[in-house]
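Thanks for the sequence, V.! I ran Nitroreductase family protein right away. Repeating your input here for the record:
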Amino acid sequence: MWTPDHGRAYQPVPYCPERLSAEESLARAAELRERMNERRTVRMFSADPVPEQAVLDAIAVASTAPSGAHQQPWTFALVEDPELRRRIREAAEEEERISYDGRLGEEWLSALRPLGTDSVKSHLTDAPYLIVVFQQRYFLADDGTTRKHYYGDESVGIAVGMLLTALHLAGLAALTHTPSPMRFLGELLERPRNEKAFAVIPVGYPADDCVVPDLRRKSLDQVLVRY
Ligand SMILES: Cc1cc2nc3c(=O)[nH]c(=O)nc-3n(C[C@H](O)[C@H](O)[C@H](O)COP(=O)(O)O)c2cc1C
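Predicted structure:
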């Protein structure tokens, strides 16, 4: 079992990554910018299988994310079993029906309207994989002792961003799905008490007739302030 570093003495090791030329840096950055601008959240999946190793590699990429005090407070549950996906969909749709029938409130529903979403979550059974990301709210040892985790929300958010990036660059489509509340995910997957669901991410290829909402991203000028 992986054990946390709490209290271990500082042990520096050399770190000398290759320094790229400015030209190489610019070329890589420009290519990445273009490729990442092509990423879209997909809600209509093909049932076609995807290479499992590509999904495992993407999860491994996510797990290289920085985290508060290097506590790596994440668990990625990879769900392929169709019966389990069916049960997750059933439970998610039950919550989503309550949400869309009034729990969300008009302001939230208005924010969602341009996305065309509703309580039907067919992606949960159509996509060949679901990655359910759990945040470990605290470290829980086998003997039941616990340790506080720091900046868990931020750490898991960064890891999920890296996961989505890795999946996209591997040619796979994904959806960040956050049914609310999400407690049913921990119950169905029988996760330990220190873990709370953070997002469920269907992964696969877009359906042949896939469409996405016509959204515009903020330009660099609109998100950047310089001093
Ligand atoms: C934290 C978070 C939660 C989200 N939850 C949902 C969700 O529950 N259902 C859904 O259909 N999309 C969800 N999305 C996807 C967003 O709607 C989507 O990223 C946004 O509309 C921009 O579209 P794009 O990803 O294609 O650029 C979520 C995204 C994030 C980052």
